[in-house]
Amino acid sequence: MKARKALAITARWLFILSVPAFLLTAGIGLMVNSQWLYQYGFDKYDVAQTTGLDSTQLEEAASGLIGYFNSGEETISLTVVKNGQLFTLFNEREVAHLRDVKGLIRLDYWVLLATGVYSLAYAGTSLFRRRKGDRRRLAWSVVGGGGATLGLILVLGLAALIDFDGFFLQFHLLGFANDLWQLDPARDYLIMLFPQGFWFDATMLVALVTVVLAIILAAAAGLYLRASRKELEVQE
User: Fold this and answer.
1) DSSP 3-state assignment of 134?
2) Closest-CA residue to 42 (of 62, 27, 23)
3) Largest pairwise CA distance in the chain
4) Around Cβ 192, how many Cβ atoms within 10 Å?
5) CB of 208 closer than 8 Å to CB of 28
6) What gap in Å lies between CA 24 and CA 228, rounded to an integer?
7) Are 197 and 45 in contact (CB under 8 A)?
8) pLDDT, tens digit (0-9, with 9 covering 90-100), for 141-189
9) Could you give the 3-state DSSP secondary structure of residue 5?
10) What does the pLDDT look like over 98-150, one tens digit per residue?
11) 3-class secondary structure for 21-52?
């Protein structure tokens, strides 16, 4: 009996912790695949002027990157037209770094999948088992997961707002086992396409999306708890 109770508590806490991981990785996945975000950054930071590429070629570059991140190809070979000539956009160092970036994106997808499957399995079990109190416990767990998500984003968001340079540096030191990410903005197109300001905007967008999703989930669970409480009061 004690073992069963401990297992139930562990499963519930795993669900609560899965919620922020799922929502954050979902936000990152949306960012990675957002052609609109890429175009927004190109326009805001005048990337056409910096790179010498017109809007059509920039769109091709964005599509090529998104396609590469979602493909089975190990390396990227992206050719654009510059000044009327075919031009290979990324050099060997940039290609190697993009391979590392793709590894992190794949990790994001795997965490998204694992937490999504677990959350659905836990929620499905709670909804269809029909044991007394299971649905209310699930709703409270969703509220807890939403609260944990907001707390996580608050910490990460404040760190990014206070010192984004330091935040960005620590991300690269923790995320990559080499220094291939140290590129030259004067000659490396990957930096020209995505200056640091773009990454600040993208980070804020991921935070915003994650917060909105967390609030929606917690609010829906809160409404259910309120309705079910009234129902219990009527029955009494």
Assistant:
1) helix
2) 62
3) 79
4) 20
5) no
6) 29
7) yes
8) 999 999 999 999 999 999 999 999 999 999 999 999 999 999 999 999 9
9) helix
10) 999 999 999 999 999 999 999 999 998 888 876 667 888 899 999 999 999 99
11) HHHHHHHHHHHHCCHHHHHHHHHHCCHHHHHC
